[in-house]
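ARCHIVE RECORD
Type: protein–small molecule complex
Small molecule: FE2/S2 (inorganic) cluster
Source of inputs: curated submission
Record status: active
Notes field left blank by submitter.
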Amino acid sequence: MSSWYKVLNQPPKEGTMVAVEVEGLKLFVTLNGGQLYCAENRCPHEDIELTLGCLKGNRVKCSLHGYSFDLDTGDSSEDDVDHMLTYPVKQKNNEIYIEV
Ligand code: FES
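STRUCTURE (tokenized, with ligand):
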């Protein structure tokens, strides 16, 4: 069963990724184009934090080999690389909650 967890007291700054940890999961939250997103903070290709990479349009680009993942769907730029895991995120007043 999934629950909502408060992870931040305020939304990330536009265009930045913030690493958070909830229930032993390493995730990141980002505000991109005014929209909140949450995903696993681990590249599906090799074990590296995606927060070391950067945002490009609506994708997060990994710092190691440059593969990218859609913030909405987790869709991978490479056919042979798994999708990024994404999680529901919401803002209530100023606080940010993630459902895991
Ligand atoms: S480790 Fe992320 S693209 Fe290779």
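CURATOR ANNOTATION: Strands lie at 4-8, 17-22, 25-32, 35-40, 54-56, 59-61, 68-70, 86-87, 89-92, 95-99.
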